[in-house]
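Obj: model holo form, ligand = pyridoxal-5'-phosphate.
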Amino acid sequence: MAQFLDSVPFSGIIRIRDMMYSVDRPFRLDQGDVSFDAPASVKAALQKAITDNRTHYVQTTGIPPLLDLLVEKMRTKNGLPIGGSDEVMVTNGGIHAQYIACLALLEPGDQVLIPDPAWPPTVSNILAAQAVPVPYPLYENRGWRPDMAELASLITPKTKAIVINTPCNPTGGVFTREDLDALAALVTERNLWVFSDEAYEDFLFDGREHLSIASWPGMYERTIAMYTLSKTYAITGLRLGYLAIKDPVIRDRAKKVVFCTTANVSSIGQYGAVGALEGPQDVIEEFRREIAARRDIFYEKLPKASKGLMTGAHPAGAFYAFVKIDPAWTSPLPNAPESQSWAMTEFLIKRARIGSVPGVDFGARGEGYLRFCFARDRKEIEGALESMEAAFTA
Ligand code: PLP
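Output (holo structure tokens):
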């Protein structure tokens, strides 16, 4: 029965990563990774964990001091009415949280509404649980938010859950309080679950605040809230995510998935996470402010660098520019792919040494768009845009 995995796609991001390895002096705007170093608090905690020989098996769902800190964080920062640390699990990054949530909740054939465009593992994880992703459109002219009436019209008797990702990768769209009011009412009325992917909770711009749907009255019970330390503390390689589940049956299943896939998340990493949460938190705002400045640099320079071929409004959150390619543009390269977003991606790699991700990799509605990560350092962003301008001038 392993054949179904043949239809689970790899993300094009992997193909691009491979292509980028053959590029001399590349501009890596393809990767969703921040350029900052880990905070000193994390490094010290990791080093101490090694010195203290914290290298043995630990509790399946996470070490108690970390679970306690995560409960406190989700209660105070996200407003989740968490009963206790038994409702929380440490995961091998946010991607593992998503896999666990899908396996724990979904039956084969269940339908799950997902945003289009969406982060590619969203589709893969649902398929890996033998369930069926059903896209709901996000609209650029609505700030990459859905039309709630349209979303409601896609619900069928087989729908089990709705995925939301706010702020969103790749679009940078952020759901409003009214969107979440409407969604909470809808899922309550139709007795559905929400997978709430809040990986970018700390990256909102222009005075916006992050809202967790699990903090709405009655919603924690029907939401699997998923978080990661990867982006917030610039520790993508340590693989530290977490989730919270109220329902004891679903939670028990989730715990089995954690056990079967990791036994426990790296002990050393978990002590590093304790350091992250106990250390000074101003680092989060420092990172956010710098990322906001990089966003502004990118969008200020893009019109000239792309000769007007790429356009888009400043994103409200996350750290990606999801820009529209002029529909009239065609690639000057021989044997260019039919997909315009792939053609532009290849053009920028070959002619400008710039990595980006084709919009179509995030869903059908992403065709004609390109995603650039602006969490790279200023020099890399500016170098990429100069190189882009030269490529379009040549
Ligand atoms: N969710 C979204 C939308 C993401 O973009 C990412 C990473 O890019 C994640 C979750 C998970 O990140 P990680 O597995 O690195 O913690």
